[in-house]
Design a protein that fits this description.
Helix content: 25-40%
CATH architecture of one domain: 2-Layer Sandwich
Shape: elongated
Structural class: alpha+beta
CATH topology of one domain: Alpha-D-Glucose-1,6-Bisphosphate, Chain A, domain 4
Radius of gyration: 21 Å
Distance between the termini: 43 Å
Strand order of the largest sheet: 1-2-10-9-8-7-6-3
Strand content: 25-35%
Number of strands: 10
Low-confidence stretches: 1-18, 311-319
Length: 344
């Protein structure tokens, strides 16, 4: 009863202020499942970028919810998003590029891991490595490359490119079981297990979009209609080290009586540092402005298992990383809104 009364008051305030009321089902979900207050909802309806940290059961579990009103139509948003190199051109991101379908070696021409260091590679052992790598890749770096030769760096870069493309194409055939196991710490981390757990806890999405979540789990099988995929890689800076990561994007078109909705999933397949596993969902919910023009609510939910959040150092990072991540999400939502409303 309190939630309904607060929602009614917020709707009245929005109507008076000329904002954009949230659709009833979206408002209820945000209030009941994500505990947004009437004041939070009113800010969103007024057009402000909103970001919230969500507490998890484990210290390395970073969850964020973000929402923003964008005055454009869903189809234009999706066209902009599929141009991922421009869409994700943000403060943290240094470079973004799509892979071909299927991925091929030439997609990575000229690329090199930005912090690949011969001494650190030679020092890599299962359980102790400066990079997130499977144990067999550590051995290949140490046995197939003569680091004393002047062409060692070029050969290392070529090995990275071959390993990367082979990995992506195995995933395209086998899905999550092909995902790697990191041996950079004493306790190996299975990316497949991490992704499985993250997907398994997408309870709101599972209840509303069961076929989409099933495809996220069982790819390349169980593809829903009106679905498309692409892969991309990115070099970004989230801390002291540059991060190179690869993601699989799935976009599903959802015809609804009130217009065309879209859901987008981005599943991280690999990262060189910081991230063990990560999933992001975006939902595009169409609405109409009071003057009849198209608009949409963009809802973003990010969840990742991150390094370094335990122990003495972790206690320090837990005071810094979540807040900075929330600020980054809000900043990037604003950037997307500005670009779409100003014509990119």
């Amino acid at each position: 009863m309190r939630i309904r009364r607060a929602a009614a008051l917020a709707c009245l305030a929005v109507g008076i202020g000329g904002g954009q009321p949230l659709p009833g089902d979206l408002r209820d979900t945000l209030a009941t499942r994500f505990s947004l207050s009437a004041a939070d909802l009113q800010k969103i309806e007024a057009g402000e970028a909103f970001g919230k940290l969500i507490s998890g059961d484990r210290v390395d579990d970073l969850q964020l919810l973000g929402i923003i009103l964008v005055r454009t139509d869903p189809e234009r948003f999706i066209r902009a998003y599929k141009d991922i190199a421009h869409f994700e051109d943000t403060k943290e991101v240094r470079f973004t590029a799509k892979f071909s379908n299927p991925p091929k070696m030439t997609d990575l021409d000229g690329f090199r891991i930005p912090d690949l260091d011969a001494d650190r590679i030679r020092a890599c052992r299962p359980g102790d490595c400066a990079y997130k790598l499977p144990d067999w890749v550590m051995r290949e770096f140490q046995t197939k490359i003569d680091w004393s030769r002047p062409d060692a760096q070029a050969k290392a870069d070529a090995l990275v490119r071959k390993t990367w493309i082979d990995y992506l194409n195995r995933y395209r055939l086998q899905g999550n079981p092909a995902l790697t196991v990191y041996y950079d710490t004493p306790t190996p981390f299975s990316v497949a297990d991490g992704v499985k757990q993250l997907i398994g806890e997408l309870t709101v999405a599972r209840n509303r979009l069961p076929e989409f979540i099933r495809y996220l789990q069982e790819y390349p099988n169980a593809r829903p209609p009106d679905t498309e995929d692409f892969f991309y890689w990115q070099e970004a800076s989230f801390g002291l080290k540059p991060v190179v990561r690869t993601s699989h994007v799935i976009i599903e078109k959802l015809p609804r009586p009130d217009g065309t909705h879209y859901v987008i999933a981005s599943k991280m397949l690999f990262a060189t540092h910081y991230f063990r596993a990560a999933i992001e969902l975006k939902y595009v919910y169409p609405v109409r402005s009071p003057d009849g023009r198209p608009a949409l609510y963009l809802i973003a939910y990010q969840r990742s298992y991150v390094d370094g959040m335990t122990g003495v150092t972790g206690a320090f990072l837990r005071h810094i990383v979540p807040g900075r991540s929330q600020e980054s999400l809000i900043r990037n939502l604003k950037l997307a809104k500005d670009r779409l409303e100003q014509g990119m």
